[in-house]
Write a structure and sequence with these properties.
487 residues, mainly alpha, Arginase, Chain A, 7-stranded mixed sheet, 16 helices, binds zinc ion, EC 3.5.1.98, transcription regulation, chromatin regulator, Histone deacetylase
C-alpha cells in the first residue's frame, strides 16, 4: 500500500475536486458532560488544523443551515423530535418516562443545546447532499455528522439524530442508487435498520456477515466482521476488492462515507490498529471513483487523533499535500510530544488471520456476484421527477448555495470559554467503564440472536418500526433507491 504522503497519482484521480466543507463555529461548544468520551470539541480542533494547514482556501467553507423539525421528521418520529426540542438538563427530571422511552439519559445524555447540536449535525449532512444533488461540488464534508446509531424514535450510542439517513434520503431524490460505506469501528446499525429492506450496502467493522439485507434488500447489505488489532494492510486487503466490486456491480450515483475515527490505533474506545494514512486510504479509494461523495464524521474518542485523521482526510479530498510537522495553532499542546500529523500504529497483536480475512473476502464477493446475477435486479437508469417532489423544491430553495452562509475565514474561531481546555482529554480509562458507544457485549448478544435467526435463511432481524418508516417514505426512496426490476 502506498504510504507516502497523500499526493494523488496523475490521471483521472489527480484531477482536483470541488469540495464543500460544512462547519459551524459553535459546534465545539456543545458538551456531553464531564468524563463523557464524545467531545464535539474534536470538530473545532479539526477545523483549526484545516485553517492552519491552509486547507480552507481550497474548499468552499459553509455554515450549515440548522435542520428544521420537518427535515428531521423525514426519518424520525414526530414525538421523538418534539422531545429532543423540548428537553433540557433542568427539566429532564420531570420527564423520566420519556427519557426511558427515547433511551436518553445515560450513554446519550441531555446536555445544554442538545437540539441545536442535532440541527447542526443534520443540517451539514443534508446541506452536503443538496450541494451534491445540484452538482455544486464533487465532495461534501461534514465532520459533525456521521452519527450512525440514532434510531427513528430512539437515541443510541451518543447519537440522537441520524444525519446519515437524512442525507441519504436527500441524495435519493436525485440518485437511483446510493452506496453507504461505514469505516467506524462500530456497526452502523441505525442506518442499516432504516434501509434494511432496500438495496443499499454498508461496510462497517462490526455487524454480522450474515446480515445481508432482506427481501428486496437482500444482498444489499454487507457487513465485514473484523477482529481486534486490524492493521492497514489487513484492512485494505478486504476493503479494496470488496468496494471495487460493489462499485462495479451496484454503480451508485452517490456515495456516503462515514469516516468514524474510532477505528484508529490508540482510540479511547476502539481496538483496531489503523494508522491515519491507512484510514484515509479508504477516503482516497472512494474518491478515485469520481462519484459524488459525502464524507461524514462519526465515532472517535482520542480526540487529538480524530482531528489529525479528519484533517488529513480533508487534504486527501481536496488533493493537497500536507506536512507531517504540525503548524502552531490554538490547540497545539494537544499534539505533543510529537507535534506531527501522522501517528504510528501500535505493536498490538492483529487477531485477524490472513486465512479468515480471505474467507470473508471470498464470501462477500460471492454475495456480490449473486447480486450481479439476480434476475430481478436490473440496473436501469430511472430519474426522479423532481418537478413533482414538493420536498425537493423546498429543499432546493432552503439549501441553495445562496442560503448557506459562508464562514468568514478571517474571523478568529469562537472566543467562548473552551471547556475542553480546562478538561484536557483524559488519558486514563477510568471514567469510561460504564459507558461505551456500542458495548461489545451488546454486539455479541446481537450476533447470537442473529445466529439463531439466520438458521432458517429467511427471518433476518427486522424492526417493525423501520419497516413502517420505509413505507411512509416510500415515495422518496424505495422507488428510487431500489435497483429497479423491469417494470
Ligand atoms: Zn464508533
Amino acid at each position: 500500500m502506498d504510504t507516502g504522503g497523500n499526493s494523488l497519482p496523475s490521471g483521472p484521480d489527480g484531477v482536483k475536486r470541488k469540495v464543500s466543507y460544512f462547519y459551524d463555529p459553535e459546534v465545539g461548544n456543545y458538551y456531553y458532560g464531564q468524563g463523557h468520551p464524545m467531545k464535539p470539541h474534536r470538530i473545532r480542533m479539526t477545523h483549526a488544523l484545516l485553517a492552519h494547514y491552509g486547507l480552507l482556501q481550497h474548499m468552499q467553507v459553509l455554515k450549515p443551515f440548522p435542520a428544521r423539525d420537518r427535515d428531521l421528521c423525514r426519518f424520525h418520529a414526530d414525538d421523538y423530535v418534539a422531545f429532543l426540542r423540548g428537553i433540557t438538563p433542568e427539566t429532564q427530571q420531570d420527564h423520566l418516562k420519556q427519557l426511558r422511552r427515547f433511551n436518553v439519559g445515560e450513554d446519550s445524555p441531555v446536555f445544554d443545546g442538545l437540539y441545536s447540536f442535532c440541527q447542526t449535525s443534520a443540517g451539514g449532512s443534508i446541506g452536503g447532499a443538496v450541494k451534491l444533488n445540484h452538482c455544486l461540488c464533487d465532495i461534501a464534508i461534514n465532520w459533525a455528522g456521521g452519527l450512525h446509531h440514532a434510531k427513528r424514535s430512539e437515541a443510541s450510542g451518543f447519537c440522537y439524530v441520524n444525519d446519515i439517513v437524512l442525507a441519504i434520503l436527500e441524495l435519493l431524490k436525485q440518485h437511483q442508487r446510493v452506496l453507504y460505506v461505514d469505516i467506524d469501528i462500530h456497526h452502523g446499525d441505525g442506518v442499516e435498520e432504516a434501509f434494511y429492506t432496500t438495496d443499499r450496502i454498508t461496510f462497517p467493522g462490526t455487524g454480522d456477515i450474515r446480515d445481508i439485507g432482506y427481501e428486496k434488500g437482500k444482498y444489499y447489505s454487507l457487513n465485514v466482521p473484523l477482529d481486534d488489532g486490524i492493521d492497514d494492510e489487513s484492512y485494505q486487503f478486504v476493503f479494496k476488492p470488496i468496494i471495487g466490486k460493489v462499485m462495479e456491480v451496484f454503480r451508485p450515483g452517490a456515495v456516503v462515507l462515514q469516516c468514524g475515527a474510532d477505528s484508529l490505533s490508540g482510540d479511547r474506545l476502539g481496538c483496531f490498529n489503523l494508522s491515519i494514512k491507512g484510514h484515509a486510504e479508504c477516503v482516497r479509494y472512494m474518491r478515485s471513483f469520481n462519484v459524488p461523495l459525502l464524507l461524514l464524521g462519526g465515532g472517535g474518542y482520542t480526540i487529538r487523533n480524530v482531528a489529525r485523521c479528519w484533517c488529513f482526510e480533508t487534504a486527501v479530498a481536496v488533493g493537497v499535500e500536507v506536512d507531517d510537522k504540525m503548524p502552531h495553532h490554538e490547540y497545539y499542546e494537544y499534539f505533543g510530544p510529537e507535534y506531527t500529523l501522522y501517528v504510528a500504529p501500535s505493536n498490538m497483536e492483529n487477531k485477524n488471520s490472513r486465512q479468515v480475512l480471505d474467507e470473508i473476502r471470498i464470501k462477500l464477493l460471492v454475495y456480490l456476484s449473486k447480486l450481479e446475477h439476480a434476475p430481478s435486479v436490473q440496473f436501469q437508469e430511472i430519474f426522479a421527477d423532481s418537478e413533482t417532489d414538493e420536498d425537493q423544491d423546498d429543499a432546493g430553495e432552503r439549501w441553495d448555495l445562496d442560503c448557506d452562509m459562508e464562514v468568514d475565514e478571517c474571523k478568529p474561531l469562537s472566543s467562548r470559554v473552551n471547556r475542553e481546555i480546562v478538561e484536557p482529554e483524559p488519558e486514563d480509562q477510568d471514567d469510561q467503564k460504564g459507558i461505551a458507544e456500542h458495548p461489545r457485549a451488546f454486539n455479541a448478544a446481537a450476533e447470537e440472536t442473529e445466529c439463531s435467526k439466520a438458521s432458517d435463511g429467511v427471518s433476518m432481524p427486522i424492526d417493525e418500526s423501520s419497516v413502517k418508516v420505509d413505507q411512509e417514505n416510500s415515495e422518496h426512496f424505495i422507488s428510487l433507491f431500489r435497483c429497479t426490476p423491469s417494470q
